## 1
Amino acid sequence: MDVYWWSDQNSKAIAIAKVALKNEVTPPELSVKLAQAYKRANAVPQAEKIMDSIIKKHPKNTEYIKIKKTFKE
């Protein structure tokens, strides 16, 4: 996923992340990258929904809160 994400191939990054999550690969960093890929693909509502769920599970993680705030820019 990282190769697609860093090379600005957001649709491929999204597809890979969805497969990983479907297969129960669930580190929060994967979901954060999926949210960021959605944002870069101009799918901000999906990105915000993912970040909301991550922040709900990790409310003290300030980095996740900062990332979500960038979606408003």
## 2
Amino acid sequence: MQYKQEIHDNFSPLPVKEVPLYSEEMCGLAALERLKETLYGDEDPSQVYYKENTIRIVQEDGFYSLQLYLPGVPKSDVQLSKTGDELNVRIGNHRRNLVLPQALAALQPAGAKMEEDYLKIKFAEAARV
């Protein structure tokens, strides 16, 4: 039960579906039909269960900010680097390369903060040498 609650807490606000441990292996169409009924009942399984903008670009105070929705991730676990027009985001063993829009590709990251489950990465013009 401890881990069940932890899973719900860690994935919140995403809905978590639960399936009991069946006494037999899930083989064949009848078993899949039973699994479908357990998971979805009368729901449409193709529906969107959660809607949140996971990436936002905001312009404020003369700066651009790229905002990544990362609920439950502490800022200290996030590593950022920029290579050309890509922003490389690493959280533990997971890495994602985001191709930046032209407006941000020419700019450099100038700080980041975690606020309301969003990692807000501020972009500024590169220092001229």
